[in-house]
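Worked example 3 (structure in, sequence out).
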């Protein structure tokens, strides 16, 4: 299972739920989900306090888990990176900031930047007594971001018109003193947004740490796209809000980690792009390699050492 919400955040959500009718929140969740799937932004989908809470109940566990996975990869790739400041751009209810603090207790100052008053208000209530952050209400497309060691834009690029996304990425990179993390839904559209962002960042001199093991053109064809998945448990309230029976959820996500040249990073190695296929003859891996090529690699069972290593690999891991 993937990372669960921190106890402090889980307790804060439970406090928000006290005295509220779950049926009303489920209806709000359905309405906001429909709005997002129709391509509407948070400014349209999140109208008030109940909408923000319904979103947090239904989506915060998944977006938190995906962002936490990305930060775990950032820590593996750049183990010496210890940020003191965070800019959470498009912060929503603040789940990305909680994930960052869990990954880097060194964070001393956090800045939230979001256009939604209901989201910023809920983020402040959830963080009370556990997480200190300075909120700023503003349009992401307008720029004007404060500098930070770590800059995060999680599930945010889709909120911006396509013709303004490159400028936003450039503005976020300009505010980045160390590491920039971009997280998007694991859809073809989300992956395409990150590929475009990758071009902007490489052109600006960034070093891509993950998931790409190279700076060349992506070798995936149009029928495929770079994305990963994290499985997370669902609480009873989470299931009620989503009208779901399964005790778990699989969140598919795409991401990009880019760093300033001074950030020391581990050597990049081939990335597992799909769940390994385990059979009697051995294990089959789909890899994106350092040579910017797709490779299908078979690890035979008779090679006991290599097979044992391959058994520990999962979708998204680096070799």
């Amino acid at each position: 299972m993937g990372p669960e919400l921190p106890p402090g955040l889980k307790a804060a959500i439970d406090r928000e739920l006290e005295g509220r009718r779950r049926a009303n929140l489920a209806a709000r969740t359905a309405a906001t989900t429909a709005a997002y799937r129709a391509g509407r932004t948070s400014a349209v989908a999140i109208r008030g306090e109940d909408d923000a809470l319904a979103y947090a109940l239904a989506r915060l566990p998944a977006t938190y888990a995906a962002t936490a996975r990305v930060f775990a990869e950032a820590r593996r790739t750049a183990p010496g990176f210890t940020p003191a400041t965070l800019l959470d751009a498009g912060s929503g209810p603040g789940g990305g900031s909680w994930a960052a603090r869990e990954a880097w207790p060194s964070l001393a100052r956090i800045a939230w930047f979001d256009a939604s008053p209901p989201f910023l208000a809920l983020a402040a209530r959830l963080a009370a007594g556990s997480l200190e952050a300075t909120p700023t209400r503003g349009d992401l497309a307008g720029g004007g971001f404060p500098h930070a060691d770590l800059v995060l834009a999680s599930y945010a690029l889709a909120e911006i018109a396509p013709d303004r996304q490159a400028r936003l990425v450039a503005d976020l990179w300009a505010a980045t003193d160390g590491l920039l993390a971009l997280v998007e839904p694991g859809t073809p559209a989300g992956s395409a947004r990150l590929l475009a962002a990758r071009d902007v960042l490489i052109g600006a001199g960034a070093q891509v740490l993950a998931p790409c093991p190279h700076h060349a053109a992506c070798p995936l064809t149009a029928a495929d796209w770079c994305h990963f998945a994290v499985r997370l448990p669902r609480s009873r309230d989470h299931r009620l809000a989503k009208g779901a029976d399964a005790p778990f959820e699989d969140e598919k996500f795409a991401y990009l980690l880019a760093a300033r040249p001074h950030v020391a990073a581990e050597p990049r190695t081939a990335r597992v792009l799909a769940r390994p296929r385990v059979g009697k003859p051995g294990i089959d891996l789909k890899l994106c390699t350092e040579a910017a090529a797709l490779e299908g690699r078979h690890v035979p069972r008779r090679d006991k050492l290599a097979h044992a290593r391959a058994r520990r690999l999962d979708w998204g891991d680096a070799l």
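Notes: The CA atoms of residues 30 and 57 lie 12 Å apart. Residues 271-311 form one domain.
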